[in-house]
């Protein structure tokens, strides 16, 4: 049997981590999924507790920005303690779009706290076939031996 040294402050640091106010006020960033289909990119964001009026979507140059704010809904305050586990606050997520994406063609829908943005893929340039001409052309070069 191994002898383990008892460190009383180790247990206290774990309790402090659990109840620290800084942990409750951490920055909130919504989770995003980006899926590529044959003709579009689909961005899905979980925004629980927000409505479509609470979210702002902008496209500037080739950058898509999603921003909003989730406010504190409730907190428990009994017998001298306070417990807040859900993160809240303002957020902003950005995504650089591929070259050639038409910002006017981007659409968004919001249902049950899930935002879905459809980003059509840009038109791909089709390869151009170049025909090789017939005929011979000679190129004269000077000799260095002269």
Task: Write up this protein.
With 146 residues, the chain is mainly beta. It has a domain at 21-120: Immunoglobulin-like (Sandwich), CATH 2.60.40. 11% of the residues lie in helices and 36% in strands. It has two helices and nine strands, in the order ααβββββββββ. The chain has helices at 8-19, 21-24; strands at residues 32-36, 40-46, 55-60, 63-70, 76-78, 81-83, 89-96, 107-111, 114-120. The strands form three sheets. Strands 1-2-9-8 form a four-stranded antiparallel sheet, with no helix packed on it. A hairpin with a 2-residue loop joins strand 3 and strand 4. The longest helix has 12 residues, at 8-19. The chain is elongated and about 95 Å long. The relative contact order is 0.19.
Keywords:
Immunoglobulin-like; Small_HSP; single chain; 146 residues; mainly beta; Hsp20/alpha crystallin family protein
**Helical stretch count?**
2
Write the CATH fold name of the domain at 21-120: Immunoglobulin-like
CATH architectural type of the domain at 21-120: Sandwich
Strand percentage lies at: 35-45%
What is the tally of beta strands?
Answer: 9
Whole-Å distance between the termini?
Answer: 94 Å
Largest sheet: 4 strands, antiparallel
Strand-pairing-aware structural class: mainly beta
| Integer average pLDDT | 79
Radius of gyration: 30 Å
* Strands side by side in the biggest sheet: 1-2-9-8
Succession of helices and strands: HHEEEEEEEEE
The CATH class of the domain at 21-120, by name, is Mainly Beta
Query: Which range best describes the helical content: under 10%, 10-25%, 25-40%, 40-55%, 55-70% or over 70%?
Result: 10-25%
> Which residue ranges are poorly predicted, with pLDDT under 50 across at least 5 consecutive positions?
none
> What coarse outline follows from CA principal-axis ratios?
elongated
Family: Belongs to the small heat shock protein (HSP20) family.
Pfam families: HSP20
Domain SHSP: 23-135
Protein name: Hsp20/alpha crystallin family protein
């Amino acid at each position: 049997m191994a002898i383990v040294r008892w460190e009383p402050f180790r247990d206290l640091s774990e309790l402090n981590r659990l109840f620290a106010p800084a942990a409750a006020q951490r920055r909130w960033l919504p989770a995003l999924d980006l899926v590529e289909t044959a003709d579009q990119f689909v961005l899905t964001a979980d925004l629980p507790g927000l409505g479509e009026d609470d979210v702002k979507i902008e496209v500037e140059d080739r950058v898509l920005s999603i921003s909003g704010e989730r406010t504190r809904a409730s907190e428990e305050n009994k017998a001298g303690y306070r417990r807040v586990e859900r993160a809240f606050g303002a957020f902003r997520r950005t995504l650089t779009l591929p070259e050639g994406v038409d910002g006017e063609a981007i659409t968004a829908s919001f249902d049950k706290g899930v935002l879905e943005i459809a980003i059509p893929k840009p038109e791909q340039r089709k390869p151009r076939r170049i025909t090789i001409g017939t005929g011979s052309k000679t190129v004269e070069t000077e000799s260095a031996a002269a």
